[in-house]
Every structure is written in structure tokens, then in C-alpha cells.
Amino acid sequence: MSMSSDVRTLFLARGLRGFGDGFATIILPAYLTAIGYNPIAIGIVLTASLLGTAIFTLAVGVIAPRHDLRTLMLGGALLIVFTGLAFPAFEHVALVSIVAFIGTINPSTGDIGVLIPLEHAMLARGVSDEARTHAFARYSLIGALSMAAGTLAAGMTDLLARTGVEEITAFKAMFYAYGTLGIACAVLYRHLPHAQMEEKPHAPLGPSRGIVYKLAALFSLDAFSGGFIVQSLLALWLFERFDLSVATAGAFFFCTSTLSAFSYPVAAWLSRRIGLINTMVFTHITSSIFLIIAAFSSNLYVVLGLLLLRSALSQMDVPTRTSYVMAVVTPAERATAASVTAVPRSLASAISPTFAGMLLTTAFSGLPLVLCGAGKIIYDLTLLYSFRHIKPPEENHAAAPGKLQGERP
Fold first, then answer.
1. What residues contact 82, with CB distance under 8 A and at least 6 apart?
2. Is 409 within the bounds of a domain?
3. Residues 259-273: what's their mean pLDDT?
4. Which band of pLDDT confidence, cut at 50, 70 and 90, is reported for residue 200?
5. What's the CATH number where 310 sits?
6. What's this model's pTM, rounded to 2 decimal places?
7. pLDDT score for 251
8. For residue 71, is it within any domain?
9. What's the number of domains the chain is made of?
10. Residue 398 DSSP label
């Protein structure tokens, strides 16, 4: 696939953001533990982060069709800068929760956040239907590899501690580094063209409203289930159950992120043969089974192996899901559709971390993993039943004239 300079700019910005998210998801629970937070308080902060992300992402999706995408993306980059500066400034749980609510640190490994629907809409503008899934697979690949590198960078806190730097000071330095990445993203976004619909729509969603709302409802179930074991909570579970160090956890999550990254091109290849929906569903179900089995194991190496197998499959629905959403809506609806379907991935998952934090303190600390896996399997089966006949243009070239391609006749 040939790439324009704008597409390359988007890929580079995605890489910078992924790198920051990679170390932020690891150091966030470790930092909160270092300043005296218990698992319940950490769950509250993560809930605030996901809830705020949902609200801001929904707001962006509503206003995006009527505003310049580049301007909105610059605002999102400045929000990254604010997050990096504000997190180290407070320690009281209420103030930290407010910063988490407003800020951009993503405790999950998924593609959620205010910049996601904007980048998705901008990327979809510049590629054909045939190249769309491949483009989003490459976009996700870059994000995952950069996140993997970021998880390794989380080990810098241990290196700084060995040189005599206080642990909390080292954590704060990493937050400042996160803010610096926001400045770099802003510089990149300034090189993008202005992107605004020539004819402003009367409503953010039009003919695709029904499809988008059905997908959003299903994605909310997936997100609620995933919220029980977002990466920050999975790291906390490994810290407490197996006494892993931050550096070891960072190295492990580097491996999981790398496996997830290289699954994206495989997902694009597989979707050409069995379809986007089938690729999303069957890889997801298998990964959930591995997660459930890991919850019952007391052997660290078995657990890590199962989690690695899960990582090789669990994110294959990311580029396929994004490509599917972009395919079954009209171009004018893409930013809003990306927002409306992404919001459940933070709004619904915002409910789960607080409960998961409580469950981690019970006799069976692996219960959040079981609930996550079971909920995702239910989501996958429902998605398959509901959307198996609604195909994107490249899978359904015989769509009836006058109908939205991929819409059920």
C-alpha cells in the first residue's frame, strides 16, 4: 500500500502516543501504590480515567463533523501535555481522580481516547475500500509496537532508583516525559491538512444510525468485560499475586504488546479469507478461553504463557473492528461513528475497574479474569449472530444500488 505524507504523519503520531501509553499504564498503578493508594483507591482512579475518556470522546464525535479535524487533534495533543504536568502535582485521591478524568492516560491497551476517532476519520479519508483494513492494521501495528517499547521504558524507574533517585521522583519524571510526547504530537498534527466536511450534516449520524447504535451497544458489553482486567489492573494482579517488579512486568508487557502488534497484519490477511466479522469473533473467543484458564493457575510461568497466547489473539479484532465500522457508514459519519462506537470502550469499562479492585482483595484474586473472559465470549457470540449478514463493500460488491454498502437489504 502506497502512503501519502499525511498518512505517514498519522502513523508517526500514533507511534508517539503509543509509546507514552505503554509506560504510563505500567507506572500509573505503581506510582499510586508508592504514594499510599490501596487497590480500591487505584480502581477508583482508573474508573475516573475511563469515564472521562468516554465523555470527552463522545463530545469530540458530536462536534467533529462541524469542525476542522486538525484543530481538534491539536487540542487533544495539548491535553496530553496537561496530563503529564498535572498528575505529579497532586496526591489526594479526589484531585488525582479529577486529573485522571480530564487527562489522557489510558489504563487499557485498547484504542480509546479523544484522538482515536479523529485519527480514524482522517486516515479513512486517504485510503480506498480495498486498502482500508490493511491501513488500519498498519496503524494498529505501529501503535502496539510503540506501546511495547513504552512498557520497556517503564523500567527506567528502577534504573533511576539504583542511581539514588527517589522512587516517587522517578515516577514523576516519567509523567513529565509523557507530557513532552504531547508537544511532539502537536508539532506533527500541524503538518496535516485542514479537514472539514464541505457540507455540514444536519445531524452527526444519518443513514447509518441504526447500525452504529447496535454496534455501540455490543461494544459496551465487550468494554465492560474488558474493564475487569485493563492492563493497569492486570499489572497490579501480577504485582500482588506473584510479587513481580516493575521492570519485570514492563518486560512481560513488552512481549504481550509485541505479540499483539504482529497479530494485526495477520488479522488483515485472515479477514480477506473469512471476513471481518468472523476474524473478530473467533480469535476473540479463543483468547478469552486462555484468560479464564490463567485465572486458576498458581504457577507464574504457566500464567505468563497463557497470557502471551491470549495476547497473540485478543487484539486481532482491533483493526478489523475499526475497518468494519468505517466501511458500513457514510464518509460524513465516520468521525461520529468512530466516537460513538469507541465511547463504550471507555464508558462501560469505566464501571468495572472499581469492582475489579475489590475483587482483587478476595480469596480468589483471579475472579476479574474469569468475569472478563466470560463476558467477552457472550459479546462475541452476540456480535456474530447480529452482524454476520451485514458485510463491508469489499465483501459485498453486489450491494443493491441506492443502499448503504454493507447494510442489510
1. 102, 103, 179, 182
2. no
3. 88
4. low
5. 1.20.1250.20
6. 0.68
7. 85
8. yes
9. 1
10. T
